Amino acid sequence: MTAGISTSTPVVTKYLVESPQENCDKLTRRAILYTIASRTSMVALFIIATATMTIVLMGLTLTGAASFGLIGAILATPALFWIQGKLDPLAQEAKSQAQIENCVANSLKEISEWDSESLEKFFQDNEIPHKDIGDLKERLVLIARFLFWDHRAETMGHDGFRKLAVDNEDVVKLNTDCKDPAKADNLRHQIRCHGFYLLEEEAIPAILQSALMLELIANPFQELEIAELGQMSPKPMMLRLAERRYDDLDVYFTFKDKTRKPLNSEETLDLFAEGGAPAVRQRMFAKQDQVNPRSWRLLDIFNEMLTWRPKLTFF
After folding, report:
1. Along the chain (315 residues), what's the average pLDDT of each consecutive run of 10 residues?
2. H helices within the chain, ranges in order?
3. Coil, strand, or helix at residue 250?
């Protein structure tokens, strides 16, 4: 009896085999198609509304197929509204993803000429063993993705922290109309809320993505996504701070493996600031959680935010 021979293809992450430029072109075409379909729905709604108003104002009477056509068009308007409401977000998402893929493609072009010394330095700097990998250039597309997310995390994190640290003097410098303390307080709160938004919605997701890319660079023979590891829970500033103060709760990333300790936003930012993406990767993909003391580097700012009360206007 002849033993069966397995012909199954080894599992490999899609990020290793997909071309960022091809993805960019595909997503750009998709965004254009979604936009055209959305605009077509809008034009159809305008035509139906115009025809209906014209018939009503002029007192016209339709009979036969024309009347059934108008009734059908009017009944179709809720579906057209629903379609347009769905297509616009899809177009924006495709456009955003296309911009990411374009940035990754540009990053890949910049590092395509890296020599073996530059590649080895990258692996050493990011604490990835590379003796058994073979041709390091095979991982260039993954490295390009990591460089994009790492740069995005640093940029958004820096901007977010800078806005969180703004004070009333900075507000007056930015806007000379805010010399009144009450106006300055309100504007400062708005700036800090936006800074917190940048950390929760942009910087931390980029940090987690950069850690994921490092894990895939080390071992690309796996299909791995952030959503498969767990769930992110970004929250508005006041809700996050209220949970920290009153419930002693700060959960940003919950692992699907319930034995794993959740990641909080403060810990993630601290790890990235102190050890970069390799430290976050160690925390996310370690077989056993390491207890990291919380530094609370922003505690003073957060406490000040919690004691601040916005000026309410009642209508």
Report:
1. 48 89 95 90 76 66 62 69 83 94 95 90 90 83 95 92 77 62 78 90 94 93 90 90 80 90 88 90 76 47 45 31
2. 14-17, 20-58, 65-111, 116-125, 140-164, 168-174, 181-197, 204-218, 226-229, 237-246, 265-285, 299-307
3. coil
